[in-house]
Design a protein that fits this description.
By secondary structure, the protein is of the alpha+beta class. Helix content is about 15%, strand content about 30%. The chain is built from 3 helices and 7 strands; from the N terminus they run H-H-E-E-E-E-E-E-E-H. It starts with 6 loop residues before the first helix and ends with a helix.
Length: about 150
Amino acid sequence: MRGYDFAPLYRATVGFDRIADLMDRVLTTDVAQPSYPPYNIEKTAENAYRISIAVAGFTPEELTVEVRDNALHIAARKAAEEEDRHFLHRGIATRAFDRRFALADHVRVDGATHEHGMLHIDLVRETPEALKPRRIEIATSPRPAAIEAEKAE
């Protein structure tokens, strides 16, 4: 197991606690990440993203999409199956799942659609006006009276 000490990061930065905690969690996780259901994450524009999850066999009513604590939670619970069905081969997995994605600050879910066995979740990063770069005007200060008096002599 690898261990990283983020103490130098804490000494040299202010307000990056969440990022350091996230890195610490990712680097210390020994448990293998589940591979079901398969998903894609794509960047669709400068500040837009889309998560596409393969949810074949699930209806929109059986899927749940929530945002809690800067994390996107997607869960699926299959309704009770019909008992009279007998499969010779069952290759389409419809088992329950719970998938979580950590969201960066100022990323919000714009919407979700279910089509052709895929769940598409659109995300948008909105930078608040207070965080956007802005130009600061430099004002000239009036010269103190003592300097003006010395200059007149």
